[in-house]
């Protein structure tokens, strides 16, 4: 799949992401927010944002694989965290997941997610 990276001299990424990504052709897949639930619906990593981030990104990968793709097909992700102090751990989990093409990315700090034990939620748009 051909990807084009969009950058401007005025605004450079300050972390490991692209400002924008364009995909030529393909079908868009909108992925609902993924949290740290395992296959049985149990919370993984209560109180541990690193463990929750790994699980949320793995769940995102599994949805993509079920649709015939993988994380390399992601065009955009939005990550919601409940404390800015958790950003380094989340960034570490992101780096482990995205070894090749990086998606456009937004990080939002929120007061809470739909369940108080969740510390992170990740949604995405992919071309599969």
The number of helical segments is: 2
Mean pLDDT: 86
Q: How is the main sheet built?
A: 4 strands, mixed
Radius of gyration: 14 Å
Query: What overall form do the CA principal axes indicate?
Result: globular
Compute the number of strand runs: 6
What topology, given as strand order, has the largest sheet? Answer: 3-6-4-5
Order of helices and strands: EEEHEHEE
Topology:
Elements: E1 3-6, E2 20-23, E3 28-34, H1 49-66, E4 74-81, H2 87-97, E5 104-109, E6 120-127
Parallel strand pairs: 4-5
Antiparallel strand pairs: 1-2, 3-6, 4-6
Structural commentary:
The protein is α+β, with helices and mostly antiparallel strands. The chain is built from 2 helices and 6 strands. 27% of the residues are buried.
List keywords for this structure.
two-stranded antiparallel ribbon, four-stranded mixed sheet, 29% strand, alpha+beta, globular, 128 residues, 23% helix
């Amino acid at each position: 799949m051909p990807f084009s990276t969009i950058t401007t001299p005025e605004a450079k990424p300050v972390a490991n992401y692209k400002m924008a990504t364009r995909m030529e052709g393909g079908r868009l897949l909108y992925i609902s927010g993924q949290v740290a639930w395992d296959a049985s619906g149990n919370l993984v990593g209560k109180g541990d944002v690193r463990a929750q981030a790994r699980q949320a990104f793995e769940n995102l990968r599994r949805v993509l694989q079920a649709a015939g793709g993988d994380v390399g097909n992601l065009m955009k992700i939005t990550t919601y965290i409940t404390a800015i102090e958790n950003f380094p751990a989340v960034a570490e989990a992101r780096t482990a997941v995205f070894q090749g093409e990086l998606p456009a990315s937004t990080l939002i700090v929120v007061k809470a997610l739909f369940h108080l034990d969740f510390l992170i939620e990740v949604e995405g748009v992919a071309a599969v």
